[in-house]
Design goal:
With 169 residues, this protein is α/β, with parallel strands linked by helices. It has two domains: 30 residues; 131 residues, DsrEFH-like (Hypothetical Protein Ychn, Chain: A). The protein has five helices and five strands, in the order αβαβαβαβαβ. The protein has a five-stranded parallel β-sheet, sandwiched between helices. Helix 4 links the parallel strand 3 and strand 4. Helix 2 packs parallel to helix 3. It is globular and about 50 Å long.
Amino acid sequence: MIAKYKVYILVGLFISAAFLLPSATSSSAAGYEALKGVESVKAVFDERVGNPKVAVAHLDLIHKTFKDQSLTIKSRKPHLVVIFMGPSVKLVSKNTEDFTPEEQKDLGSIARIISDMSKDGIELEICMAAVRLMNVDPASILPQIKPADNGWISAIGYQLKGYAYIADF
């Protein structure tokens, strides 16, 4: 008789697990109404912040956003691209002599964050038109960042491929 109840308990557990499994394997996007029905996440960040301290905070937040499990949908990590344009191009150069000692510490933090972002799979680009306009030596750009002749054209291309556009300036 006890063995019969054990069978019922086991069957009950399997049925319960069958109902709970879909909710356990769905992404944590359930916490965001805006993500309901989304199949994958693609975003391009137009990064133009020229203040080193503010840029550290913004880049760190972009990196944390990438790591947020809410954006991993159906086991697909988000695809994020950061395009450095305008004054931000000065912050991703190895040439730091025009910055104060405090700003140079922030530039070191930016370099570390960019290295970590690149290792995690976030794509990084830089607008070469802005590099020329801001008189930044192209050879001094951090090695993880790929050149794009015109950052706006690159941003347009990503948007036409379905990437959400996020202005950060």
